[in-house]
Amino acid sequence: MSTAEQGYRRLSRSGYLLGFGVGGFFDGILLHQILQWHHLLSLVDGVGDIRNQVLFDGLFHALMYVIAGYGLTMLIRSRHSLGRPAVGRLILGNGLIGFGSWHVVDSVLSHWLLGIHRIRLDSPNPLFWDALWFALFGVLPIVLGALIKRRRSSGTGGGPAAAVAMTTLALVGGVWAARSATDARTAIAVFRPEMSDGQIFNAVGTSGGRVLWASRGVWAIEWQKPERASGLYGHGALLVSNSYLAAGCLAWASV
């Protein structure tokens, strides 16, 4: 296989991966964070309280970062193929198929086979919401993507624009998934290993915060004045995060 053909195939796969990652971000942002209709393991016995639910939501988002990041890497490596005819349709079509595939996989695996969550847990008819989500965000994008790809032989160009659009969606989804709520008063903190629990409690109190919970060296803290969170750096903290991946899910949860 020629180098040009390898680049073209890599470009095609990047569309699937980026669409799949964006689908995961869309699911997590809308259903886990904004609407809070469910968490990843809402129906799994023994998972524990909201802390563990949020932890697994965070791991889910981390997996989406890996998939989307791999897709972006493949897109960059195959950038020399963006000038080929109808590449824009190929990227857009594969992106839609990848987006829909995430929702099909999630519906079949998570909702119906494993039963780890449903789309809307507070509904008297959860199957209705499962089927509606499956059709609107699973089947429909796949059909649209397939139709767009069938027309790829007609027309030229569009590759750079489609690549920029898919990259932008992935980056926006990644940033939003990692952000905290605008009025968040919580943060995740990690302290120096040699600090005792008593020293950490004193440090938190000095900064005007209170400890919500602690697990395996990670501390969740709440402040009445969120701007004081950075003061922990002067009291032995190695990381204080209330706006990126470490605290994004926690800040949206009701703790």
TrEMBL record:
Keyword Hydrolase attributed: no
TM spans (from-to): 16-35, 55-75, 87-105, 131-148, 160-178
Keyword check for Transmembrane helix: yes
Matching InterPro entries: DUF2243_membrane
Parts forming coiled coils: none
Keywords: Membrane, Transmembrane, Transmembrane helix
Top-level taxon: Bacteria
Protein name: DUF2243 domain-containing protein
Native species: Novosphingobium kalidii
